[in-house]
Design a protein that fits this description.
With about 150 residues, the protein is α/β, with parallel strands linked by helices. It has six helices and five strands. It has a three-stranded parallel β-sheet, with helices on one face. Strands 1-2 form a two-stranded parallel sheet.
Length: about 150
């Protein structure tokens, strides 16, 4: 599950990073995360979210776009995460929530989800008692979660 703001702009460098580490295998490895269900969970409106994903050329990358705007309880409220989760058919320990916002990571962690913080600027953890399971400089770090189930806490 991705937070849309600021998190997704480096999807294409994931392929490049994979190609660098494993020449000729970048498409295969970077595409392996697509075997998982991928969802965007956003505080934005449905129209804004759809337009943003379309303009970025990411329409085919996600199984579901979820706006929380309709419930009027924005992330990091637990109700915001529950809005999608209650109908997901998943257990909380089966979800990896990825965001570049420390406050969003803390909210998802408080809700009981696994979290990966895309911390491009090397900022300190906002709430140490709700620290992310993993911290990466860019999205290429999440490959360990996608390719190796043992990496999950």
């Amino acid at each position: 599950m991705f937070d849309v703001y600021g998190t997704l702009f480096d999807v294409h460098p994931v392929k490049a990073a994979c190609d660098e580490q494993f020449p000729g295998k970048g498409d295969q490895i970077s595409g392996s995360w697509r075997t998982k269900q991928t969802i965007v969970l956003s505080n934005g409106t449905d129209a804004m979210l759809a337009k943003l994903i379309q303009n970025a050329g990411f329409t085919d990358l996600f199984d579901e776009l979820v706006s929380i705007d309709g419930i009027k309880q924005a992330k990091p409220s637990p109700a915001a995460y529950m809005h999608w989760f209650k109908n997901s058919g998943l257990n909380r320990d089966e979800v990896l929530f990825i965001s570049s916002n420390g406050w969003d990571i803390a909210g998802a962690k408080n809700f009981g989800l696994h979290t990966a913080w895309i911390n491009r600027d090397g900022k300190p953890v906002d709430m140490p008692d709700l620290a992310p399971d993993a911290v990466y400089e860019d999205l290429s770090g999440i490959l360990e979660w996608v390719t190796d189930e043992a990496a999950w806490p």
